[in-house]
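Review this:
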Amino acid sequence: MRRLHSCGITQGSDMRKAGAQMKLGAFLTATGQHIAAWRHREVKADGGVNLKEYVEIVRIAERGKFDMMFLADNAGIWDRELESDGRSSRAAYFEPITLLSALAAVTERIGLVATATTTFNEPYNVARKYASLDHLSGGRAGWNLVTSANEAEAYNFGFDVHLAHADRYARAREFAEIVLGLWDSWEDDAFLRDKESGRFFDPAKLHMLDHKGERFSVRGPLNVPRTPQGRPILVQAGSSEAGMDLAAWCADVVFTAQPALADGVAFYKELKTRVARAGRSPDDLKIMPGLSPVVGRTREEAQAKFQELQELIDPVVGLGLLSSMAGYDLSGYPVDGPFPDLPDSNTGKGRLKVLKDTAHRENLTIRQLYMRIAGTRGHNLVIGTAADIADQMEEWFTSEAADGFNIMPQALPASLSDFVELVIPELQRRGLFRTEYEGRTLREHLGLSWPANRYAAARAAAAE
């Protein structure tokens, strides 16, 4: 029986039950998460635009029974960091929906999640693309809603300056309202396709959105039917106050950077509280911090793998990465001096806070900090055996710091293969992760409730 859920509809509390298992995403960034991965002898340098390489990688993740693969995206290159980008692989990769449409044809179970910004898109187009991907994949699509921290994107869409952080989130809220509304255009049983009677669909079960708001006017309806999982999964990655409020209102999954267990526990408790305050069951949102594992059969082997990548870091690239993440040009600061106490920028507030907290807690210099984040982007780094990595994952999971993790392999495909071959069996042995997929849709993998069509739900409520 489907358990109905819709943003704004009150549900009873349904926190983690005994025997619950963690959820896993595979965050697949071009050649790997490590900024120097493309230089590694076993990595294909053109991985960001190599379809065969992506096919191999996503099949590895599916073999490991990952809930989903996750693609980040930027629609611009940081022109102020061309020297840095010219020494990294960050400037060339596929548009994600195009890529996931291709990958849908060569996979069967793994979820397919991609980023689309609310700042430089239109709601109707995003709703249509992700609904189409959900149909193409048999119910495995997810939309990672972002507001574009990269100011270089603004210059590609007719803006001279980037929108302010608060304005981007206000736009994102209305944008999400429209997309969710458009995904409800058709009731589940609207399409009759009855050749005998000549009735293709029931007009009474097609609904106009007629949205007229501060930033958008969208009539609807969407010309894509209700999707195999009701609607695509909605992922959100903001950890600022505005980001958490948006996630609490309607996200299914939150991807967050929490480098320490105490931080993870506090974030988890705060966000689950906000979810309940928004009238939703806390179990209807899965919190999945990023985790960068380096696994070996011994700790020495794991450390050697990581050190090999660290030795490939170009200082120009390291500093450029840190500058882009912080939202400030750090080239004028002494590289062996302390990380400055920077005020909030107009980029990602949550990520800057993680950087400052890490640097100040561990008294790191700028150089030490960029070396630290080169393979993690501010997320949690774990180097060791399968048991070491599983120990930390289990601790976070049982401490309610995470419902699962977005795994960030350092160098692809080898780092992902290592995780699937070594860590996944250890998690399965402990009963912490599936041995087989529970269903065919991403919603089923994540254990999320069926999203009630708002119009059908209102009619049913009126009839009671």
Remarks:
- The first strand starts at residue 4 and ends at 5.
